[in-house]
Design brief:
Blueprint (H helix, E strand, L loop, with lengths): L28 E5 L9 E6 L7 E5 L8 E4 L3 E9 L5 E10 L7 E7 L6 E4 L3 E5 L12 E6 L8 E5 L8 E4 L3 E5 L2 E2 L5 E2 L2 E6 L7 E5 L11 E2 L3 E5 L2 E2 L2 E2 L2 E6 L7 E5 L10 E2 L4 E2 L1
Antiparallel strand pairs: 1-2, 2-3, 4-5, 5-6, 6-7, 8-9, 9-10, 10-11, 12-13, 13-16, 14-15, 16-17, 18-19, 19-22, 20-21, 22-23, 24-25
Length: 281
């Protein structure tokens, strides 16, 4: 049975069907895919953000890899890019997807590619954004931003615009309207670890605009989480060592990041995701 629109029940029996639409059943579920094992992992796990407890097996990626990036609507999860050193160093620009409310193996996103490996992802409820990352051409770090329609597998990935600085090893998040990208490493014009924060309007196309700066320059900051109003980055590789600082910004404004608090320890290469109220690293 599929429930659509506003659905409520009033009964004196012991069974009360859940309210809301069928598409909302997977909300609050966080998926974690791949990872840096030898060889790289293809495992997709999940947790429920509103509870605590160990992750549960969801299924497998199409291709085992580490440093894949995720984005999602409320119903579909998408994984892009990735890297493996087995049997040789290989960067992937592939895309695969799952239906969040079910379990099972990922499916290829109709042969489409993200345009870059190790890109920075964020999404609205309908559109997924992939920015920066590694490309086969030289210089191999790009400023390009691409987008896709999450619900459609028949539409090619399209060009959106460019970041203010070409970068990799960066992080992103989004509100329903605005996408944010921060930190990373750039080789041009000189090898530099960045504290730059960029933003875009997801529903349009065009180049990113400067938003502000992080508390400190960070590399290997591959995590970002947000709700509709506030975005958060945790940890990263700082010039003095791994950072434990959690940065936050108010997405609808412009300005520099502020201190939210600290992680339990300094870390890099983390993944992150959130419900509207709880964030997980």
């Amino acid at each position: 049975t599929e429930f659509r629109g506003v659905t409520t029940f009033d009964t004196q029996g012991y069974f009360v069907p859940p309210s809301g639409t069928t598409e909302q059943r997977g909300r609050g579920r966080i998926l974690i895919a791949g990872g840096n094992e030898t060889p790289p992992s293809n495992v997709i796990s999940y947790v429920n953000a509103s509870t605590s407890g160990n992750a549960v097996d969801f299924g497998d990626l199409v291709t085992a890899r580490r440093r894949a990036r995720g984005l999602s609507s409320s119903t579909r999860g998408v994984f892009t890019g990735g890297f493996t050193t087995t049997p040789t160093a290989t960067y992937f620009d592939i895309i695969d997807f799952v239906t969040i409310s079910t379990t099972g193996n990922a499916v290829d996103f109709d042969g489409n590619t993200s345009g870059a490996a190790s890109c920075i992802n964020c999404a609205s409820s309908t559109r997924g954004i992939m920015a920066g990352g590694l490309v086969p051409s030289s210089p191999n770090i790009t400023a390009g931003i691409n987008f896709l329609t999450i619900a459609s597998t028949g539409q090619n990935v399209s060009s959106f615009g460019n970041l203010t600085v070409a970068r990799r090893n960066a992080a992103g998040f989004a509100s329903p309207t605005r996408g944010i990208f921060a930190a990373g490493f750039t080789p041009v014009p000189a090898s530099t670890v960045l504290n730059t924060i960029d933003y875009i309007n997801i529903a349009s196309t065009g180049n990113a605009v400067d938003f502000g700066d992080l508390i400190e320059p960070l590399e290997k900051l591959r995590n970002g989480l947000s709700n509709n109003t506030r975005g958060i980055f945790g940890g990263g590789g700082a010039p003095g060592g791994n950072s434990n600082i959690i940065n936050y910004v108010t997405i609808s404004t412009l300005g520099d990041a502020l201190d939210f608090g600290d992680l339990l320890r300094g870390k890099t290469d983390m993944a992150a995701a959130s419900s509207p109220v709880r964030g997980l690293f």
